[in-house]
Amino acid sequence: MATRPVSSTLQAWELGIRLRQARRDLGLTATSVAKSVGIAPSNFSAIEAGKRRITASKLTQLAEIYELTEAERDLLQTLRGNAEQRNWWHDYSELYSEEFLRFLGIEAGASGVRVWSPIAVPGLLQTSEYARATIRAGSPYIKPVDVGPRLETRLARQALLEDEPRLRMDVLLGEAALRQKVGGPALGRQLDRLIEVCSRADSTVDLHVVPFAADAHPLIGGPLTMLSFDNVLLPDLVWQETAITGNLIDKPQVIRECSASFDEVFESVALDTARSLELVQQIRSELGATS
Fold this sequence. Notes:
Blueprint: H1 8-25, H2 30-37, H3 41-48, H4 56-65, H5 70-83, H6 98-108, E1 112-117, H7 128-138, H8 144-157, E2 168-174, H9 175-179, H10 186-199, E3 205-210, E4 224-228, E5 237-241, E6 246-249, H11 252-269, H12 273-287
Parallel strand pairs: 1-2, 2-3
Antiparallel strand pairs: 1-4, 4-5, 5-6
Helix pairs in contact: 1-5, 4-5, 7-8, 10-12
GO molecular function: DNA binding
Protein name: Helix-turn-helix protein
Organism: Saccharomonospora marina XMU15
Protein backbone atom coordinates (compact mmCIF):
# COMPACT_ATOMS: atom_id res chain seq x y z
CA MET A 1 0.00 0.00 0.00
CA ALA A 2 1.31 3.46 -0.92
CA THR A 3 2.37 6.02 1.68
CA ARG A 4 0.72 9.40 1.74
CA PRO A 5 3.10 12.16 0.55
CA VAL A 6 3.85 15.13 2.80
CA SER A 7 1.51 18.05 2.16
CA SER A 8 3.47 21.23 1.43
CA THR A 9 0.38 23.24 2.39
CA LEU A 10 0.32 21.69 5.86
CA GLN A 11 4.06 22.21 6.29
CA ALA A 12 3.72 25.92 5.46
CA TRP A 13 0.80 26.20 7.88
CA GLU A 14 2.74 24.59 10.73
CA LEU A 15 5.75 26.80 9.99
CA GLY A 16 3.56 29.89 10.19
CA ILE A 17 2.02 28.79 13.48
CA ARG A 18 5.44 28.16 15.03
CA LEU A 19 6.73 31.54 13.86
CA ARG A 20 3.70 33.36 15.22
CA GLN A 21 4.00 31.60 18.57
CA ALA A 22 7.72 32.43 18.83
CA ARG A 23 6.97 36.09 18.13
CA ARG A 24 4.17 36.23 20.67
CA ASP A 25 6.30 34.52 23.32
CA LEU A 26 8.62 37.54 23.14
CA GLY A 27 5.75 40.03 23.12
CA LEU A 28 6.68 41.37 19.69
CA THR A 29 4.20 42.81 17.20
CA ALA A 30 3.94 41.50 13.66
CA THR A 31 4.43 45.02 12.31
CA SER A 32 7.70 45.62 14.17
CA VAL A 33 9.17 42.25 13.21
CA ALA A 34 8.12 42.61 9.58
CA LYS A 35 9.84 46.00 9.42
CA SER A 36 13.05 44.70 11.01
CA VAL A 37 13.46 41.90 8.44
CA GLY A 38 12.25 43.90 5.44
CA ILE A 39 9.00 42.06 4.72
CA ALA A 40 5.81 43.91 3.87
CA PRO A 41 3.32 43.62 6.77
CA SER A 42 0.68 41.99 4.57
CA ASN A 43 3.19 39.39 3.35
CA PHE A 44 4.38 38.79 6.90
CA SER A 45 0.81 38.10 8.04
CA ALA A 46 0.37 35.71 5.11
CA ILE A 47 3.57 33.87 6.10
CA GLU A 48 2.29 33.42 9.66
CA ALA A 49 -1.01 32.16 8.24
CA GLY A 50 0.84 29.64 6.07
CA LYS A 51 -0.41 31.24 2.87
CA ARG A 52 2.90 32.62 1.62
CA ARG A 53 6.36 31.06 1.51
CA ILE A 54 9.46 32.52 3.18
CA THR A 55 13.06 32.39 1.94
CA ALA A 56 15.77 30.57 3.88
CA SER A 57 17.62 33.83 4.56
CA LYS A 58 14.54 35.61 5.92
CA LEU A 59 13.78 32.62 8.11
CA THR A 60 17.32 32.76 9.48
CA GLN A 61 16.79 36.44 10.34
CA LEU A 62 13.57 35.64 12.19
CA ALA A 63 15.27 32.82 14.08
CA GLU A 64 17.89 35.30 15.28
CA ILE A 65 15.26 37.81 16.41
CA TYR A 66 13.28 35.09 18.20
CA GLU A 67 16.42 33.72 19.89
CA LEU A 68 15.61 30.17 18.82
CA THR A 69 17.75 27.15 19.69
CA GLU A 70 19.69 25.25 17.04
CA ALA A 71 17.14 22.43 17.16
CA GLU A 72 14.26 24.88 16.70
CA ARG A 73 16.03 26.52 13.76
CA ASP A 74 16.65 23.16 12.10
CA LEU A 75 12.98 22.23 12.49
CA LEU A 76 11.80 25.50 10.95
CA GLN A 77 14.19 25.14 8.02
CA THR A 78 12.96 21.58 7.45
CA LEU A 79 9.37 22.80 7.43
CA ARG A 80 10.34 25.58 5.02
CA GLY A 81 12.00 23.12 2.66
CA ASN A 82 8.98 20.79 2.74
CA ALA A 83 6.68 23.75 2.10
CA GLU A 84 8.55 24.40 -1.15
CA GLN A 85 7.74 20.94 -2.50
CA ARG A 86 5.28 20.60 -5.36
CA ASN A 87 2.26 18.36 -4.78
CA TRP A 88 -0.18 16.94 -7.31
CA TRP A 89 -2.82 19.67 -6.82
CA HIS A 90 -0.38 22.35 -7.98
CA ASP A 91 -0.74 20.92 -11.50
CA TYR A 92 -4.34 22.18 -11.50
CA SER A 93 -3.69 25.71 -10.25
CA GLU A 94 -5.20 27.31 -13.36
CA LEU A 95 -8.52 25.56 -12.77
CA TYR A 96 -9.22 26.52 -9.19
CA SER A 97 -9.20 29.45 -6.78
CA GLU A 98 -6.37 29.84 -4.27
CA GLU A 99 -8.82 28.98 -1.50
CA PHE A 100 -9.82 25.66 -3.05
CA LEU A 101 -6.19 24.76 -3.77
CA ARG A 102 -5.41 25.49 -0.12
CA PHE A 103 -8.31 23.24 0.89
CA LEU A 104 -6.90 20.43 -1.27
CA GLY A 105 -3.51 20.79 0.42
CA ILE A 106 -5.02 20.85 3.90
CA GLU A 107 -7.29 17.89 3.16
CA ALA A 108 -4.24 15.99 1.88
CA GLY A 109 -2.63 16.32 5.32
CA ALA A 110 -5.72 15.72 7.45
CA SER A 111 -6.03 12.67 9.69
CA GLY A 112 -9.82 12.79 9.87
CA VAL A 113 -12.80 14.46 8.24
CA ARG A 114 -16.42 14.75 9.24
CA VAL A 115 -18.70 15.45 6.29
CA TRP A 116 -22.33 16.52 6.22
CA SER A 117 -23.70 16.16 2.69
CA PRO A 118 -27.48 16.53 2.45
CA ILE A 119 -28.05 16.17 -1.30
CA ALA A 120 -24.98 14.58 -2.92
CA VAL A 121 -22.45 11.83 -2.25
CA PRO A 122 -19.17 13.46 -1.07
CA GLY A 123 -16.37 13.72 -3.61
CA LEU A 124 -14.07 11.36 -1.70
CA LEU A 125 -16.61 8.57 -2.19
CA GLN A 126 -17.83 9.27 -5.72
CA THR A 127 -17.45 6.94 -8.68
CA SER A 128 -15.99 8.46 -11.83
CA GLU A 129 -19.42 8.38 -13.54
CA TYR A 130 -21.15 10.13 -10.67
CA ALA A 131 -18.33 12.65 -10.33
CA ARG A 132 -18.38 13.46 -14.04
CA ALA A 133 -22.14 14.08 -13.90
CA THR A 134 -21.84 16.43 -10.91
CA ILE A 135 -18.93 18.32 -12.50
CA ARG A 136 -20.77 18.80 -15.80
CA ALA A 137 -23.80 20.13 -13.95
CA GLY A 138 -21.79 22.17 -11.45
CA SER A 139 -21.72 25.49 -13.28
CA PRO A 140 -22.69 26.82 -16.70
CA TYR A 141 -19.23 28.42 -16.81
CA ILE A 142 -17.27 25.16 -16.65
CA LYS A 143 -15.74 24.59 -20.07
CA PRO A 144 -16.17 21.10 -21.57
CA VAL A 145 -12.39 20.88 -21.91
CA ASP A 146 -12.04 21.38 -18.14
CA VAL A 147 -14.33 18.50 -17.15
CA GLY A 148 -11.56 15.91 -17.56
CA PRO A 149 -8.97 17.72 -15.42
CA ARG A 150 -11.59 18.44 -12.74
CA LEU A 151 -12.51 14.76 -12.72
CA GLU A 152 -8.82 13.87 -12.36
CA THR A 153 -8.61 16.18 -9.36
CA ARG A 154 -11.58 14.60 -7.62
CA LEU A 155 -10.37 11.05 -8.19
CA ALA A 156 -6.82 11.94 -7.09
CA ARG A 157 -8.21 13.05 -3.72
CA GLN A 158 -9.57 9.54 -3.14
CA ALA A 159 -6.05 8.19 -2.61
CA LEU A 160 -6.50 9.48 0.96
CA LEU A 161 -8.71 6.45 1.62
CA GLU A 162 -6.10 4.02 0.28
CA ASP A 163 -2.67 5.43 1.16
CA GLU A 164 -1.25 5.06 4.66
CA PRO A 165 -2.07 6.52 7.05
CA ARG A 166 -5.61 6.27 5.70
CA LEU A 167 -8.04 9.10 6.26
CA ARG A 168 -10.76 8.52 8.84
CA MET A 169 -14.20 9.65 7.65
CA ASP A 170 -17.44 10.16 9.54
CA VAL A 171 -20.05 10.76 6.85
CA LEU A 172 -23.54 12.12 7.40
CA LEU A 173 -25.67 11.75 4.28
CA GLY A 174 -29.16 13.07 3.75
CA GLU A 175 -31.48 10.46 2.26
CA ALA A 176 -31.88 12.75 -0.73
CA ALA A 177 -28.24 12.09 -1.61
CA LEU A 178 -29.12 8.41 -2.03
CA ARG A 179 -32.15 9.04 -4.20
CA GLN A 180 -31.19 11.98 -6.44
CA LYS A 181 -30.62 10.30 -9.81
CA VAL A 182 -27.32 11.96 -10.58
CA GLY A 183 -26.03 10.57 -13.85
CA GLY A 184 -29.12 8.38 -14.34
CA PRO A 185 -27.91 4.76 -14.17
CA ALA A 186 -24.73 6.00 -12.53
CA LEU A 187 -26.62 6.28 -9.24
CA GLY A 188 -26.94 2.51 -8.86
CA ARG A 189 -23.22 2.00 -9.32
CA GLN A 190 -22.58 4.87 -6.92
CA LEU A 191 -24.66 3.14 -4.24
CA ASP A 192 -22.76 -0.08 -4.91
CA ARG A 193 -19.55 1.85 -4.27
CA LEU A 194 -20.87 3.23 -0.98
CA ILE A 195 -21.87 -0.23 0.20
CA GLU A 196 -18.53 -1.72 -0.82
CA VAL A 197 -16.37 0.98 0.80
CA CYS A 198 -18.33 1.14 4.05
CA SER A 199 -18.70 -2.64 4.44
CA ARG A 200 -14.99 -3.50 4.28
CA ALA A 201 -13.66 -5.12 7.44
CA ASP A 202 -10.89 -2.52 7.58
CA SER A 203 -12.99 0.44 6.41
CA THR A 204 -12.11 3.85 7.80
CA VAL A 205 -15.46 5.28 6.63
CA ASP A 206 -18.41 5.37 9.03
CA LEU A 207 -21.65 6.22 7.23
CA HIS A 208 -24.79 7.50 8.98
CA VAL A 209 -27.87 8.49 6.98
CA VAL A 210 -30.39 11.13 8.01
CA PRO A 211 -33.70 9.72 6.72
CA PHE A 212 -36.56 11.77 5.34
CA ALA A 213 -38.51 10.82 8.48
CA ALA A 214 -36.10 12.69 10.74
CA ASP A 215 -37.33 15.84 12.45
CA ALA A 216 -35.63 19.26 12.27
CA HIS A 217 -32.00 19.12 13.37
CA PRO A 218 -29.00 21.49 13.81
CA LEU A 219 -27.46 20.76 10.40
CA ILE A 220 -30.47 21.52 8.22
CA GLY A 221 -29.00 23.66 5.46
CA GLY A 222 -25.93 23.45 3.28
CA PRO A 223 -23.07 20.94 3.39
CA LEU A 224 -19.93 21.29 5.47
CA THR A 225 -16.66 19.46 6.04
CA MET A 226 -14.64 19.51 9.26
CA LEU A 227 -10.97 18.58 9.08
CA SER A 228 -8.77 17.43 11.96
CA PHE A 229 -5.06 16.68 12.24
CA ASP A 230 -2.76 14.44 14.25
CA ASN A 231 -0.42 17.40 14.82
CA VAL A 232 -1.51 19.07 18.08
CA LEU A 233 -0.35 22.46 16.79
CA LEU A 234 -2.91 22.43 14.00
CA PRO A 235 -6.48 23.34 15.01
CA ASP A 236 -9.58 21.88 13.37
CA LEU A 237 -10.88 23.71 10.31
CA VAL A 238 -14.24 23.90 8.57
CA TRP A 239 -14.67 23.91 4.81
CA GLN A 240 -18.03 25.37 3.81
CA GLU A 241 -19.07 25.18 0.19
CA THR A 242 -21.92 26.73 -1.75
CA ALA A 243 -22.92 26.12 -5.35
CA ILE A 244 -20.25 28.54 -6.59
CA THR A 245 -17.80 29.28 -3.76
CA GLY A 246 -15.99 27.64 -0.87
CA ASN A 247 -14.27 28.99 2.24
CA LEU A 248 -11.98 27.65 4.93
CA ILE A 249 -13.11 28.78 8.38
CA ASP A 250 -10.76 28.85 11.37
CA LYS A 251 -12.84 30.76 13.92
CA PRO A 252 -12.90 28.63 17.11
CA GLN A 253 -16.50 29.49 18.01
CA VAL A 254 -17.78 28.51 14.56
CA ILE A 255 -15.81 25.27 14.66
CA ARG A 256 -17.12 24.39 18.13
CA GLU A 257 -20.71 24.99 17.03
CA CYS A 258 -20.26 22.98 13.83
CA SER A 259 -18.64 20.13 15.75
CA ALA A 260 -21.34 20.01 18.41
CA SER A 261 -24.09 20.11 15.78
CA PHE A 262 -22.46 17.34 13.77
CA ASP A 263 -22.03 15.12 16.83
CA GLU A 264 -25.65 15.59 17.85
CA VAL A 265 -26.99 14.63 14.42
CA PHE A 266 -24.49 11.79 13.93
CA GLU A 267 -25.26 10.20 17.30
CA SER A 268 -28.90 11.07 17.96
CA VAL A 269 -30.72 11.89 14.71
CA ALA A 270 -29.17 9.80 11.93
CA LEU A 271 -29.52 6.05 11.55
CA ASP A 272 -26.62 4.06 12.95
CA THR A 273 -24.09 2.39 10.66
CA ALA A 274 -25.93 -0.92 10.23
CA ARG A 275 -29.34 0.64 9.58
CA SER A 276 -27.78 3.22 7.26
CA LEU A 277 -26.26 0.50 5.10
CA GLU A 278 -29.58 -1.35 5.12
CA LEU A 279 -31.27 1.79 3.76
CA VAL A 280 -28.62 2.18 1.08
CA GLN A 281 -29.12 -1.45 0.06
CA GLN A 282 -32.91 -1.01 0.05
CA ILE A 283 -32.71 2.01 -2.25
CA ARG A 284 -30.21 0.16 -4.44
CA SER A 285 -32.68 -2.73 -4.78
CA GLU A 286 -35.46 -0.31 -5.73
CA LEU A 287 -33.35 0.93 -8.66
CA GLY A 288 -33.13 -2.60 -10.11
CA ALA A 289 -30.39 -4.46 -11.92
CA THR A 290 -30.32 -2.12 -14.92
CA SER A 291 -28.79 0.73 -12.92
